[in-house]
Amino acid sequence: MKKHKLVILYFIASLIWIYGTNYIVEHFVPLSWEYFVGRSKEILYLLVTGGMFYFFINKKEELTASKEDEKRLSTLINSMVDFVNFKDGEGRWIEANEFGLRLFQLENVDYRGKKDSELAEYTEFYGDALRYCEVSDEDTWQNGGITRCEEVIPVPDGSTKTFDTIKVPLFNDDGTRQGLVIMGRDITDKKLMIKELAESQERLRRSEKLSVVGELSASVAHEIRNPLTSLKGFVQLLQMEDEKHQFYYQIMLDELNRINHIVGELLLLAKPQALKVTTVAIQKVLFDVISLLSTEASLYNVQIESVFPEEEMLIECEPNQLKQLFINLIKNSIEATQNGGTIWVSIAQFGDGQLSISIKDNGCGISNERLAKIGEPFYSSKEKGTGLGLTVSFKIVQAHKGTIHFDSQKNEGTSVHIKLPLLQKSRSH
Q1: Phi and psi angles of residue 298, each rounded to the nearest 5 degrees, phi first
Q2: 172-192, pLDDT tens digit by residue?
């Protein structure tokens, strides 16, 4: 009730009391008791009005203290960088800090006493997120205890924010719902740092593994190649002199050639060749590779289709290394794509001086587990593979200051995207 109404009511009640009691005393109280009753009603009036004033003063002090506590609490939660929200047992908002109101675009909304579904009508962008909060809150009530989860909130710029959200349900003594306290901390940057740290550790692990492979290659490869040459020569000599066991000699030569190829890849990892940069048309490099592998593709019943721009696209590179790169990738696609499969090779140029080469197949694909380790030495899905081919491919792309990325789905195919700069800052490395 407003103050002026209370004052008017007080004056009316006082007048009624004064004139009413005086009338009663004059007409119904004996003359001998008139003085005593008159003084008694005055004392009673003082006691009643004094008690009322005392009551209102105490209530005012309690109200002032409550407002001060509420102000301190509001200042505290508004100074927090976390989302803080208090709800009653029915899910209606009681209090929320400024961070939470800005988060859901509710700064100018009278939110108190409204449920999430009602507030969703005030913000179209966060409507679905607010409606989901009611579902999440109900899960917390059903759980009956503190719950903690990660919630992803969209942002108008197209990105998302991840919140570590804690919900604390409060119950009355009889088990009915009293209120819900919700606190959410923005951990987007933290998760990004963790992801970057994990990626750095993975790069360090791969770098250390490559270093070990390089040291091993340098000490072993040359020692293998010398006796390997002698073995190959003697097998060829026996093959010419012994007609009976030609089948076995050919198997031995094939295996010796495979060992020689692995040794060559080890030597390349141990001591990368100097990058002698020349300017060539990327179409010519890819045409040469496709022509070289067309026979092998036919054996696997695989078609290689190319989509190249008619205008020559010149790039500064080491042509032999790029040929080795494309041979490794297209051979992998051929082996993964059999029985009428197709491989598509395409080129695109970007305005930032970058060239993109894509090699796509509809083969068996790569599992997520294998995709995470692709390019590591000695990791291969092939029965007789060493994994060195893709390791060399990664090093060639890195030497050309480019990037290589694999996209794959099991039993659907694989796409390899290579991005290379058209110009090298240095003509030789």
Answers
A1: -65, -35
A2: 988 899 999 998 888 988 888
